[in-house]
Amino acid sequence: MALRFEPILAEGIAQVSYFICDESAGCAAVIDPRPDADIYLQKAQQYGVPITHIFETHIHADFMSGARELETRCKGSAKIFVSVEGDAAYNFAHEPVREGDEFEFSQVKIRAKHTPGHTPEHLSYLLSDKDEGEPWGIMTGDSLFVDSIGRPDLLGDEKTDELTQDLYNTMRKFFCKLGDEVIVYPCHAAGSACGPDIGDRMNTTIGYEKKHNPFMQIDTYEQFKKAIQDSAPPVPTHYPKMKKLNVEGPETFGHTPHVRSLSVNEFEEEMKNKDTIIIDTRDMLAFGGGHIEGALNIGQRPILSVWAGWLIDTNAPILLVLPEDKDLERVVTLLWRTGYTNFKGYLAGNMRTWQESGKPIKKLPQLSVHELSQNKGQYQPLDVRKNKEWQNGNIPDATHIFLGELSNKISRLDKGQNLAVYCASGYRASIAASFLQIKGFKNVHSIPGSFKAWKAADLPIESKTEN
Known about the structure:
Number of domains: 3
Radius of gyration: 24 Å
Oligomer: single chain
CATH superfamily of the largest domain: Ribonuclease Z/Hydroxyacylglutathione hydrolase-like
CATH class of the largest domain: Alpha Beta
Helix content: 25-40%
């Protein structure tokens, strides 16, 4: 029977888990599962095998581990296998894995290799045929990516130098010595902040990375240290919280977290809690046309997971406004992936019921790029894109504050100014503009189409380095 080895991409968080089985062995393994675990059970059912092994390459910081959720749904057939290298400890039932431990799935052998640097306990898993010693593949977790490597700074400044040295040794003494033919299966694709500038492809080879990955070409530690520190993106605010949650062991549900349907009056009652966050997941133009005062607009794209992580405390009580009621499960799943389970309910019938009940509606003015250009003296452009996007060109005279850092740098903005907020296409601009509204900014506008529309209209572009 054929070996089944399938990557499973969770868009938004750009996380890749793996399903592996040999049907003749009558068992299957999942590596680095996400919490919405139905997809693994569906594959097990498709191939007629039980899931018996759930592996974690390391303690994840960017998403909520689905290991315990999957174990619960397997109803006793599966165990969780986690690294105890680097003195790692966990507050949930698990099987310890150490350097050199081996697991067989019919003709496939999986061998654990300690690859510290991204985290102290990090393991990679070598894949080989049972009767041959040389590996044909390796699941690298967050240690080696396409065109990149895992960042060593997520445990704080006091651990960064030690982990950077470990990461350098992992690259030079292990990965660089593997055969060029070995296929690399990482835990993240492009878009993740777990490494700098991760490439677009889902997998790669050791040979390709030796030729093209800058971090595998650096010989000296000091050069390596400078390169990894200079290229590290900002640390998302939810990362430290996710790491603690994944050590403790996330709550399990056995299904997608349940969220109550609320009438307008029930929704208003829940709004009285000052800690409650209203997330409006509609399109930016719908939100701009009318929304509940105090709502944060994070549209229901897959990247919702990440921006919620940046801007909302994982323990906050959450109320949802949906495009349509049928979108509930999708939105809840995206939030669940970054640790959100404290749902107080969603507005039944969405904004239609709110409007028909005669409740107050707040608007977020939308400003076209043509209006901004023609009245440029009346508005202060605010660019909320990443640093590299900003450095590649911006609207003239714009102020730059990356969206993820807006909360910490909001004092740089004048509440009396007419702010025109833009990003690449408008999605992040609407998040930022709604956030500023919540913080008391009265004269804030969002720019649909944003910088893409500005360029398409052939309007002037300014280039400069980050301030």
